[in-house]
């Protein structure tokens, strides 16, 4: 177990390999999940596992849908302009 | 905890400072243990993921001052990391650098949200306790 520690720490000193392609946009999903979870934790006074998970998933899906709609709008705008 | 009008600003400062020192610390002091655990794990995880993606070079107090202002909301640990990375000895470039900066900065902003919320909740409970 301790043998892994230097390798894990070394991972923090060099960037990951991420290409500039459409797939790299998927990195927004963990960030969106973090925002949804923290926001719901600040808003809910009583937290139950089921209720919290439901609220966080609904907010997460809403944010993703809005981001996709905005992306489609700009794709359409770029298609019209070019 | 004994609350009076004279020590209320001190109480608010302690809660805010606890939230800055350790993400979720403000909620922990208020007794909101579940919120503290959720916030702490999520914000620390987001920040560490950002560092892993872009390397600790994304904390750049010299070349990326605006990002650094957002990142330092996460914790004073960022100042220590900034001191280490100030020489520019860590590689950071391209898309991973951008994603790492965004993740670490959003982690800082999320912690700021939690600090403000914990301080506000403390203010509300102090107001109720004093009957203002």
**Unreliable sequence segments of chain A:** none
Largest interface: A-B, 24 and 34 residues
Measured by DSSP, the beta-strand proportion of chain B falls in: under 5%
Low-confidence stretches of chain B: none
What series of H and E elements makes up the topology of chain A?
HHH
Distance between the termini of chain B: 17 Å
Verbal overview:
The complex is a heterodimer of chains A (82) and B (132). By secondary structure, chain A is mainly α. Chain A has a domain at 26-81. Chain A is 68% helix and 0% strand. Chain A contains 3 helices and no strands. In chain A, helix 2 (28-43) crosses helix 3. Chain B is mainly alpha-helical. Chain B has one domain (24-130). Chain B is 72% helix and 0% strand. Chain B contains 6 helices and no strands. Chain B has helices at residues 8-21, 25-30, 33-54, 65-71, 77-85, 94-130. The radius of gyration of chain B is 17 Å and the shape is elongated. Chain B starts with 7 loop residues before the first helix and ends with a helix. The mean pLDDT of chain B is 90. The interface between A and B is medium-sized, with 24 and 34 residues.
List the helices and strands and how they pair.
The complex is a heterodimer of chains A (82) and B (132).
Chain A: H1 4-10, H2 28-43, H3 49-81
Helix pairs in contact in A: 2-3
Chain B: H1 8-21, H2 25-30, H3 33-54, H4 65-71, H5 77-85, H6 94-130
Name the features.
heterodimer, A: 82 residues, mainly alpha, 68% helix, 0% strand, B: 132 residues, 72% helix
Brief description of this entry?
The complex is a heterodimer of chains A (82) and B (132). With 82 residues, chain A is mainly α. Chain A is built from three helices and no strands.
């Amino acid at each position: 177990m301790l043998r892994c520690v230097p390798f894990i720490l070394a991972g923090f000193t060099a960037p990951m390999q991420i290409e500039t392609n459409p797939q790299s946009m998927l990195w927004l999903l963990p960030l969106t999940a973090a925002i949804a979870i923290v926001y719901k934790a600040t808003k809910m006074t009583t937290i139950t596992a089921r209720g919290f998970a439901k609220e966080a998933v609904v907010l997460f899906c809403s944010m993703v849908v809005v981001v996709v709609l905005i992306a489609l709008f700009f794709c359409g705008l770029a298609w019209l302009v070019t | 905890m004994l609350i009076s009008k004279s020590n209320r600003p001190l109480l608010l400062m302690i809660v805010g400072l606890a939230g800055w020192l350790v993400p979720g610390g403000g909620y922990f002091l208020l007794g909101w243990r579940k919120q503290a655990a959720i916030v702490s794990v999520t914000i620390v995880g987001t920040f560490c993921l950002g560092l892993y993606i872009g390397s600790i070079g994304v904390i750049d107090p010299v070349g990326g001052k605006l990002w650094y202002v957002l990142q330092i909301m996460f914790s004073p640990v960022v100042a220590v990391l900034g001191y280490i990375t100030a020489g520019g000895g860590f590689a950071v470039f391209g898309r991973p650098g951008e994603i790492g900066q965004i993740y670490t900065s959003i982690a800082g902003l999320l912690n700021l949200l939690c600090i403000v919320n914990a301080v506000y909740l403390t203010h509300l409970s102090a107001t109720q306790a004093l009957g203002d």
